[in-house]
Amino acid sequence: MRALFPSCPGRRGTLRPAALLTLLAVGSTTLAAQQPRPRAGNAAREPAPAISLDETAARRRALAERLENGVLIAFGGRALVHDFSTFYQLPSFRYLTELNEPDHALLMVVKDKVPQSTLFLTPLDARTAFYYGQRTDSASSMARTGMPARSFSALAAVLDSLAGSGQTFWHIPDVETTDFSRLDTLTRGQETVKALTRAHPALTIRNAMPHVLAVRARKSATELALIRKAVEISAEGHRAAMLTANPQHEYELRAALEYEFTRRGAERPAYGSIVGGGYNGTTLHYMKDSDPVKPGDLVVMDAGAEYRGYAADITRTIPVSGRFTPEQRALYQLVRDAQAAAERNSKPGLSIRAAADSSVAVRVKGLAALGLIESEDAQYDPPWRVDCVASPASCRQANLWTIHGITHGIGLAVHDPLQGDARRDGVFHEGDAFTIEPGIYVSTKALDVLPDTPRNRQFKAKVLAAVKRYENTGVRIEDDYIITDKGLERLSLVPREIDEIEALMARRRAIQP
């Protein structure tokens, strides 16, 4: 999925760096690829442990430690207005409550770092409950959540009363993902904050999301078990896609991925599955998944499962024919080498930025050797606003083919925080869960959008022949990792070396139409 450290300017997410069949060893790092893959029907289908009431209470206490004093209000997700999908809770609300139901709110009154938590619940009327099932109510709340509850209808009066007490208010924005929080201003939580501000002009209201993300950054043992489970399921989905016989369209591969996700107990895909063949594979967030795939093309498959709220994020690039062409091999191996470089530099106490930079260095050198850039330091004029004098690295020609960064955290969101963000030390810590996902995307269409400047004209003239040789070739390799007391552990045990992918795909059976 989208990396959050762009190598060139553009719209950024809110997070930043401070960020196989079996028995594959990668570089000199201690990776879990040396462990056997769970067999279908055995460990891969066993449920992971659930988050306990004690753990959610500890999460609220950890948040209260950071807030010290004040009133915190958090709204859960709203009920769907259609019956075409299932309700899923907002990540931060689920983190603090483990309540996967719509239309509820959490109120925490914090005094001297000690929280007093109350849920405000929206019940269903008796007839509607026959259609959609019973919800948690004030009678069952303590047993289900460990918190007392009141009717949601009482919340407005309680907030109004507390707003007059002079305490600082904290608000957790009720947005689906922090990636798009700045675009979402009409949610119930945002409207509640506006109403409180109008009624109490002197009231101080602060955004509590940075504090919640800081607490979410270090994953507990139970959370890591849930992430492992999500990754196991996702790995089997990618394996199934590689074994899909003579696919004719992108959606056939998506169906193979998502069928396996569902069959193994995932709640849903963790994000919109990206399955792009040929030129579509050079579009980072191509999610139509509707075009034909044909022998000779590569297919980029970026898809992961969500299990009990926790996301996996895996990308594999495979040849439709089952075998890579020499040009595809060259680009693929370059990306794989770049991933291995980042793995070697992803250990406790090492810089997240340095790991990313090591991957960039490998790809820049390789792109120069393939003739896709003039030299390792060569620059161009990007088609977006950037000061090449103040930020020369933003104008490297290699950025055109390696437009995104390589690392982001995973957890209750597919782009979750890392501890290096919260601590502002920019290093990996035990308990981090994250991806490494270098990519290279080559198409003459990328050259076509460049501004007509002398520097760009020279760039195009020098590299056009090489670009045509690798035309419409997109390669991304993404794996999921955790930092343990022993170092780096790779969770996503899916074939990723060229010979491993070709060996697995050779087991496909052609189906006669």
Question: What's the SSE blueprint?
Answer:
Blueprint: H1 53-67, E1 70-75, H2 91-97, E2 105-111, E3 114-121, H3 126-132, H4 141-145, E4 149-151, H5 155-163, E5 169-172, H6 188-199, E6 205-207, H7 209-217, H8 221-242, H9 250-263, E7 268-269, E8 274-277, E9 298-303, E10 305-307, E11 310-311, E12 314-319, H10 326-344, H11 352-369, H12 419-423, E13 433-436, E14 439-442, H13 444-448, H14 454-469, E15 473-476, E16 479-484, E17 487-490, H15 498-505
Parallel strand pairs: 1-5, 3-4, 5-6
Antiparallel strand pairs: 1-2, 2-3, 7-10, 8-9, 9-12, 10-11, 13-16, 14-15, 16-17
How would you sum up this structure in a few lines?
The chain is an alpha+beta fold.
Task: Describe the 3D structure.
This protein is an alpha+beta fold and 513 residues long. It has helices at 53-67, 91-97, 126-132, 141-145, 155-163, 188-199, 209-217, 221-242, 250-263, 326-344, 352-369, 419-423, 444-448, 454-469, 498-505; strands at residues 70-75, 105-111, 114-121, 149-151, 169-172, 205-207, 268-269, 274-277, 298-303, 305-307, 310-311, 314-319, 433-436, 439-442, 473-476, 479-484, 487-490. Helix 8 (221-242) packs across helix 9 (250-263). The protein is globular, with a radius of gyration of 24 Å. Residues 4-41 have low confidence and may be disordered.
